[in-house]
Design goal:
By secondary structure, the protein is mainly α. Helix content is 76%, strand content 0%. It starts with a helix and ends in a 20-residue tail after the last helix.
Length: 306
């Protein structure tokens, strides 16, 4: 017995979205887990640059180009710069307050982000050039302020590697954050859906993973580098706007991804190298002695997810 035409059409509409949701869960979880693990093993700068690279943004733009058109994908990037400026303020507020009361601090950051994002959605702001100016101002302010929170001791910017169980938990948490944002964006209606369509899911997953496992100092170091790495998202958006329509979806995606990668490499080259003393090198060596049962927790740090 065959289904009704209505149910068939519903399934046709739902199937691409279910695929999109699954891709976001897997990619988001893997990306956040890999970025935080790299930060723990190679330092906050390397991990932050990976976390800031356009992973879910790339997926979203390519998905629009695939299901709609390259023109629609190019137009969808109009809001990316101003959104990343708002994300910088969100990270700044959250990192500033989580050292006092974690959940209250994060909630305050979310409230600031929600108010700013709602303003963007309601106003229909879509000026790419003006968005870039806003982004530069907000990013610069946030980078300077977060820089004042960084620990003076270079060893404090390192985190002990997590064990297998915590890695799995981080992957599930990161994937859940990303997929939930996508689901609410789909089902939330014009305002709520529009706001969550620009939710900083990867930033949020990274913020939670670093702060809960290693505390405010390590989280501030990683998120500062993540904001710098996030400049590649704006570069990616600019490349999409000039390449997708003339080159097509496949070639435009490659060109845009390469532009983002070039920006990431340039930012890394311009960042000062870590100066770790002999004690810091000893700290790195001793990380291998952390037992699996510790789940990568430094002594005395707060962790709420287990």
């Amino acid at each position: 017995m065959t289904g009704s035409p209505a149910s068939g059409s519903l399934g046709a509409v739902a199937s691409p979205f279910v695929l999109k949701l699954a891709l976001y869960f897997v990619l988001g979880g893997l990306w956040i887990t890999a970025g935080v693990a790299l930060a723990e093993r190679r330092g906050s700068k390397a991990g932050g640059l990976v976390l800031g690279f356009p992973s879910t943004v790339l997926l979203a733009v390519v998905f629009i180009g695939w299901t709609q058109s390259t023109q629609a994908a190019a137009l969808a990037t109009s809001v990316i710069p101003v959104v990343h400026g708002i994300n910088a303020i969100y990270v700044l507020v959250s990192v500033s307050l989580i050292g006092r009361r974690f959940w209250a601090g994060w909630a305050a950051g979310l409230a600031v982000w929600a108010a700013c994002a709602a303003l963007v959605v309601v106003s229909g702001f879509d000026d790419f050039a003006a968005g870039v100016l806003v982004y530069v101002v907000l990013l610069s302010f946030s980078i300077v302020r977060i820089g004042r929170m960084l620990p003076k001791d270079p060893e404090a910017a390192l985190g002990r590697p997590a064990g297998p169980l915590l890695i799995a938990v981080r992957g599930a948490l990161g994937g859940a954050v990303v997929a939930t944002a996508v689901l609410i964006a789909k089902l939330g209606g014009p305002l709520i859906g529009g706001v969550f369509a620009i939710f900083p899911a990867v930033f949020t997953g990274a913020l939670l993973a670093t702060a809960l496992s290693h505390g405010q100092g390590f989280s501030a170091a990683v998120m500062r580098s993540t904001l710098l790495g996030g400049t590649s998202c704006v570069v990616f958006a600019a490349a999409v706007r000039v390449s997708f329509v003339p080159l097509g979806l496949a070639a435009g995606s490659v060109v845009s991804a390469l532009a983002a990668l070039a920006n990431t490499l340039l930012v890394r080259a311009l960042m000062p190298k870590d100066r770790v003393s002999g004690s810091g090198q000893s700290f790195r060596a001793n990380k291998s002695l952390v037992s699996w049962a510790s789940w990568g927790r430094p002594p005395g740090t707060f962790i709420a997810i287990s």
